[in-house]
Amino acid sequence: MSQPKYHIVAFLVLISMTLFAQNNATEDIDILKMRVENYITQSGFETERGDYYNAKENLEKALAIAKQIGDKKSEGSIHTKIAKVQFIVEEPENALVSLTKAAELQRETNDYANLAITYNIRGILHTSKKEYPIALDYFNSAKTKFEEEGLERLIADVNLNEAKVYIELGDYKTAKAKLEKTIILAKKHDQIGVLSSAYINSGKALHKLDNEDLALSMAKKGLELAITNNIPEYINDGYLTLSDIYQANEDYKLSNEYLRKHIQLSDSLLDIKRENLSPEKKAQFITEYKDSERKQMEVKLEEADASNNLTRITTILSIALITILSLLTLSLYKNNNIRLKTNNMLHKKNDELIVAKEKAELASKTKANFLSTVTHELRTPLYAVTGLTNMLLDEEPKPDQLPHLKSLKFSGDYLLTFINDILQINKIEANKVDLDPEVFNLQKKVENVVSALSNSAMDNNVQLHYEYDDSLPSTFIADQLKISQILINLIGNAIKFTKDGDIWVRLKKHSQTEDKYIIRFEIEDNGIGITKEKQENMFESFSQGSIQINRKYGGTGLGLSIVKGLIEILKGKIYLKSELGKGSTFVFEIPLLYAPEPVITTKPKTLNEFNTLDLTNIKILVVEDNKINQMITRKILNKMNLYCDVVDNGEDAVDRVQQEQYDVVLMDIHMPGISGIEATKIIRTFDKELTIFALTAVTIEDKMQEFDEAGFDDIISKPFKQEDFEKKLYNELKSNQKSATSI
């Protein structure tokens, strides 16, 4: 061919490619999405026929279009389908790569339903490699995601896969339990294939558990379903399972009959697979491709000979160049394989870390739920203990009974403090502690804390000394409640471990930047001190100097852990200096913002004015299912000259409020039937003005939003202090009487 003809042909090819690219660029996105769906659908048909290579080719076409239009969700789903085909054609490493890509895209697009499917296939892959613990982790992650997405129908297949793993591990009891759940779900969602396999595998598990009659019944039922619905894979598995069971029952005739059927069907399935995966066909395709390429090369050589010797030399050099490039390509291919294996290992480890993270998060959530439940179960009887103790102390007990009642009160208060400490630690660890900054007088606050602890100090013959730096202002903006809690813990700790000594509480200015002060708090004692070995773990939960110290001085070992957590929340630091036998000094520094002295208004003492209210027609409804707690609440109200009706469930509470006029309802939360929250929601549909207090033993902070949404006016946590209860009730009744007077 002449040189001008070459140029013309090249020009026409270039124009055609340009026009083709423009047409592609302007093609409608919706049409491309339809093509993706068509390719995926066609691939599904081809997979069912066993035409795996064409199925994979159509999926790769769909993947290319999905990448072109930036549809990452479809990309992830297609990678999962490709991995499934690769696994069928025995390319596990390639399947692993595809599953890793799928998982990355599905996490990026929050496609958790398809991520669960990917986890399920990943579990099947690891099962085939006999990596059973890893497989179970992926199956567990798949179930968790399906449950979160509300896809119960897909859990049956995961349960079935888990059961197969437990059969391989020889844990037939667990496998049996998993298969029972699978059968229930498969029947519910009409999943014939899963149901058939579940019956057959139940036969295997029951056979190993020596329940031959039920094993035979299950296996036959599964085989019958597989034959009716023409599922060759499960038919084959059913034949082999029945053969094993009959052999164990010494029915060798039926055993051999089913074994022959299994071998015949296995050969048929293998022939079908060979027909679709024939290496000869691949070799034939390669040979034909090479022959075609060789013929084209010969034509070009003939044309080159017809032109001139220079063209022939150019052709030979081109062939040499192609050979060199081929060698380079082969080298790059090998290097790429090495890098691919390394990446696969990294992706595998990354996925394992993600699964471990999800398990840790689940464990943390379980721990929080456990603590919430235990808290309620402890607070409810504790309300009875503290309430009855206070009532007995108020009823002029005999002199010989008084020490016992005081001991009981101390034990109840100690248990309540312990419960609150555990909850505080849990909240600090979960980062659920919120700051409540307000303007307060720091000098008076610390002085009040020292004064409040002076009686405890006197019991140990300890002198408290308080020093406040003159260069420090008095008022700051901060969370004064948490500062008080820190000081109470540290000073109380010093009092506990000091006898016949002194404790110094000092506040100094560490540094200042405009209105921001770093204040240094020092709590020094000359008590028993702490060894250097024990100082390293002093701020850990349940840590004390020794078991002997714990027995002698008491305490739970949670106080210092709470202190450290609160100081870190306040952006501060804490230090400890101590020497055994010479005392200890706890030093912490926190930043505080200076604020001008606020105008203080005095508030009336509600308890002194309680008798000024007209209580004649006050009606209170107590909703409480615990009989002891009913009695305690009734007696507390009677002591306040208030009388009440009592019901023990939410349904009766709603009926009473509809029938009678009440001023206040004291509503328990956990009750048989409808809960206190549900009952309050119902009452709010017909009475918006009624005062309803939540009288509850649950952790208030965790339920605050739920209480607000239900329509409670206030919350009283059980067990409560009687003064706090009276104060809240007084404020509400006073407010109601003022409203009635103004009307």
UniProtKB/TrEMBL annotation:
CDD domains reported in the protein's UniProt record: HATPase_EvgS-ArcB-TorS-like (cd16922), HisKA (cd00082), REC_hyHK_CKI1_RcsC-like (cd17546)
EC class of the enzyme, as a word: transferase
SMART domains attached to this UniProt entry: HATPase_c (SM00387), HisKA (SM00388), REC (SM00448), TPR (SM00028)
Domain Histidine kinase: 373-594
EC number: 2.7.13.3
Cited Pfam families: HATPase_c (PF02518), HisKA (PF00512), Response_reg (PF00072)
Residues of the Response regulatory domain: 619-733
Catalytic activity: ATP + protein L-histidine = ADP + protein N-phospho-L-histidine
Residues that bear 4-aspartylphosphate: D668
Keyword presence, Phosphoprotein: yes
Key word Iron present: no
Keywords attached to this entry: Phosphoprotein, Signal
Highest taxon, organism lineage: Bacteria
Signal peptide (UniProt feature, chain positions): 1-21
The protein, known as: histidine kinase
Organism expressing this protein natively: Gelidibacter pelagius
